[in-house]
Amino acid sequence: MNDQVSAFREHELNLTRRQLFGRGALGLGTAAMANLLSRDVRATGSNPASGLHHQAKAKRIIYLFMSGGPSHHDLWDYKPKMQEMFGQPLPDHIRDGQRITGMTARQKTLPICPSKYKFTKHENNDRGVWVSELLPHTATVAKELCVVHSTFTEAINHDPAITYIQTGSQIPGRPSLGAWLSYGLGSMNENLPGYVVMHAKTSFAEQSLFGRLWGTGFLSSNHQGILLRSQGDPVLYLSNPVGVTRDDRRAQLKALAILNQQQHKRFADPEVLARIKQHEMAYRMQASVPELMDLSQETDKTFELYGEAAREPGTFAACCLNARRLAERGVRNIQIFHRGWDAHGNLPKEHESQCKDVDQACAGLIKDLKQRGMLDETLVVWGGEFGRTSYCQGGLQKQNYGRDHHPRCFTVWLAGGGIKAGITYGQTDDYAYNIADAEGNPLKPQPNKEHWTPGTMHIHDLNATILHLAGIDHKRLTYRYQGRDFRLTDVHGHLIRDLLA
Amino acid sequence: MMQLIRPLFVIGILLSADASYAAETTAVTAPVDFARTILPLLSEKCFVCHGPDAKDKDALRLDAFATATSDRGGYRAINPDAPAESEILVRIQSADNPMPPQDAEKQLTAEERELIKRWVLQGGAYSKHWAFVPPRRLAPDANKPAKQTTTIDDYVRATLRARKADLAPVADPATLARRVSLVLTGLPPEPAQLAAFLNSKDSDAYEQLVDELLDSPRYGEHQARYWLDAVRYGDTHGLHLDNRRGIYPYRDWVVTALNGNLPLNEFIVWQLAGDLLPNPTLEQRVATGFVRMNPSTAEGGAIPAEFQAKNNFDRTETLGTVFLGMSLTCARCHTHKYDPIPQNEYYRLLAFFNSTAEHSMDGNKYEYGPVVKAPANVAAWQAWNQLEGERKLLIGDAGKKIDDLDGANETFLAQWKQASSADRLAIVADPKGIFAQLDEHQRAIALVEKIETAEKSFTITLVAEDLAKPRTTQVLTRGEYNLPTGDPLAPGILTVMGAFPQDAPRNRLGLARWLTARNHPLVTRVLINQIWQRTFGDGLVRTPEDFGLQGQQPTHPRLLDWLAVELHESGWNLKHILRLMVTSETFRQSSAWRDDIDDPENRLIARGPSYRLDAEVIRDIGLWASGLLAPEMGGEGVKPYQPKGLWSALMHPASNTKLYVPDKDRKAFRRSLYIYWKRTSPHPMMTLFDAPSREASCVKRSRTNTSLQSLGLFNETQRVEMARALAARLLEQRTNDTERIDLLFTLLASRKPSDHERAACSDLLSSLKTRYAANEQDARALLSIGNVSPDVKVKITDLAAWSQLTITVLASDVAILLY
Could you say which DSSP state residue A425 is in? Predict the structure, then answer.
């Protein structure tokens, strides 16, 4: 079956059944109506939680995006042998032709830079997982995590790489992962947006984010991520102007509805009726969003879980708590962007601060979802757009160093809805430079997006797997634009069944 | 009549496209139209394996007659000599060995099998895809040339007649005046203009109104906006730091050019290749900002060769979308799956752009690559064009006298001939020069001074220039910048769309000449479709970005072609085309949905246009009605209110667009066209109503309908401010509430309210008046929003109440829809 949704059908999906029946009264043919109705059912789902192509394992997704590229060396990928190679040049056979960025391309040597952090092995449901001392809290939920050491991409710079992992293309213009999910699944809560994006505070606001990361590209723009902000109105323009009360707005909407109904009487355009409904929903949202943002009913226990920082609006911890509250209220698709992971120099100082921002809150979120019985149906994803180099950028010291961008391997973890808990997947060589086989030898040839190699996860594979868990076959969620049936994973992507529970 | 057998993509003019224009018939004997019925079917269901990009060299190719009918060892897929023996008939019906194979994603329906069968049995004739055949004027309902007197309405009626229907009645004059004014200028008619039209006894009152609107400076602003979407105009580089970029003189040039009705062919040539014209004028050079519009980066680690390739892809593919109505993206990595565009032709097309002089990385600089200094707003452009005119005249005058002058020897004449107009003027103005004794000399001195004064306020804008030594272009394997392969490629065009013009240079100028040649099958159609879409709400081709095999067929193919030829023959006259469209009965129909026609998408065009207005228009209407609209045109992007922190939450600390500093003066009330366009974070009131980011070309905006829009309409600071100013206007200009509500509706709906509407407004007003009278504090608070303190001559509680009525009507469908 082709799940192509035309622009017109997209438009139709915005119409509710009521309007469709209203249309019937206007003389729309029964066949066309049946068609519209069946489309309506198929794309938004009579039970929207059930998935588009198959039963969804994850009713909702919380994506914790670490923008800038966290160092897998210093957080997740334990390489004791590198300690003995401090300062030695990276062997050519390890680099194996990898292009490097303009920032280190002219550096005289590429000295090996072991992590200064202590790693401890934590019990999971498999062989255990090594976690650095920078993530003590996250380590406590090791049994819930599926830690993938073999994520890879082709992009080596931020803008292309982040655009790639979020939209499936390095060049702007494509819909984001979140927009695809919204397009494929619709919304579960009529009083809140279906796709919510938060920007967490950081001490190192480096690297830019772009509207395109939660934008819709050529999809209809109602699928874009809605910013939930910690400054001003949580949702843009949510509050009435000062001096305008909720009763005033009620009265205004009553008058507005009469005007619009008159317009409908004159022109019989069903869109007009749909708009009346949207105005009403906005009115409800003005109540539901403040309720969402009101943490006064949260217990001290909860703040112990997420950390005291969760009391301060805009922190990563507060965003995580909001994420749980959004998830509870049926918001399907939640993304938190945390910047500042781009540690070209002074990595220890920066990453220590970054980890402090996120570590407890990540663990808290997992525990909180679990204790509320929501983890099973909530997919949590943690990761950035690429990893960092095994060699140092700039001056190398034991206690201080920097790392450049590295595309060939990096660590992403997933947890919850449909994910196999407490495993690791894939491994890298002794330098955490190449994805390796079980013996630690770099895979030959290098894994690539054209053909999936077991044990590896290209970013397209990650996205294919996320969509799968949401009940979507990544190959069948397409949108025809310029004559081509586009999809998030382009012509690539492989569902990694090994990660599924 | 049986169609002649013609090889695909070889013969130019064909019969098939014509035949399809006739009403559909299902009679088994009726000829099956290959181009409009079979070719799209083959493309959709078969070309993935049997198309231009067939992987296996020996694979059967169904995209061309020659290969589809070739002997494949004792059988032929299509056998025109013995159609019944065609293998294709066996395979599409086969249970054991079917085509498409059982596991193919796309299967044939029974109906489609039957169509293919009929077509094969009729001889399996091939013809070109309709959009690759140059348009001709054909009569609305016969395969004869169109008559001189044929109109748009004849074509629309011809389709309707087949359904025993006719156009809807003409809309009432007031609604029509509002509609045409919004379509042409993006603003409602001025009350005086509206009254004059409604009271006019002239039979051509409507045409007079249309001419007034076409002459309005607001016309160029509104029409420019669509173009800026298509070319992805932005005030920032678009990638990484997304820093400021010097380019707004280009935007102002577009406004000026459209107001001046620059022929569209020149509009195209200047933008693609103004720098390559002989002695280019400043306008022609600034127009090449089009070539520089690709998003760019200077990210620390970026590799120049990678971005050279990406910038080229972007420009080539934008050319495809904007002028050819085609995606060329597929051909970046492999020969196009559906459309006959080989990969090497993609790279030959790309070669036209591969030698532009700027570095592939922008250095985060405002003045990135070649720049010129140009007029800094629209008025300055107009003044400049005037000066250019004077200069041309003066040089002409001086030139006529040259032969009579001493010193006009051969050396001098050669020098004169080579000189640019600026240099010639300098020669005439030279006190030691040979013109020193003439009147023209004094005039030249004065003019030089005026020009120098004008140039002092010029500002930087990015332009295109070519390197003296072109870069080498090769095919890039899979589109990877570091995998060039094969011989160096000379610049070249897509051969399926006609030959490169003889005697044209192999550079961007030649490319532009190819696009604007009489026989180019796509450019005029694509432009007409864009113009139709912005006039009627939907294009004649509903996929304006795709005229290829996978795109939708035109709803009115002959109308599209007739207008395409008209565009060409009118001298690429945009105002003429718009006048034809808006004065048609088709445009003037009532836009009410009809009970007698089942056509929710209005594909028959049996009712007038109706749609939600664009973001910019919604905002501009409010500013205009309130009297706040600042009429100044052009200049650096303006910054109306925007919630705090939107940019800083996203931007790198080194970016020079991380802080949004709202304008505090009248600039905040300029038309939305001039809003500063930061491509990674455009103004939220624009994106809320579907404005694109301008990172990529957009020839069709979505039109969504969301609850967040409701919040924006009622709560955004500028909405509150414009509502208050509108309320003050009503209170000051009219003496009683009835007249005030009348004026409100006259401004926003171009008519008086109905009884129901009046009652709704009165009820709301009286409840708000009571409510604010009881709480003056609230009234004061509400009126304090924004920067413009109202000059309150009325009771503030009344003003507060009125402002909440006006914001309601401004948010209603009365105001935000075209109908």
Answer: E
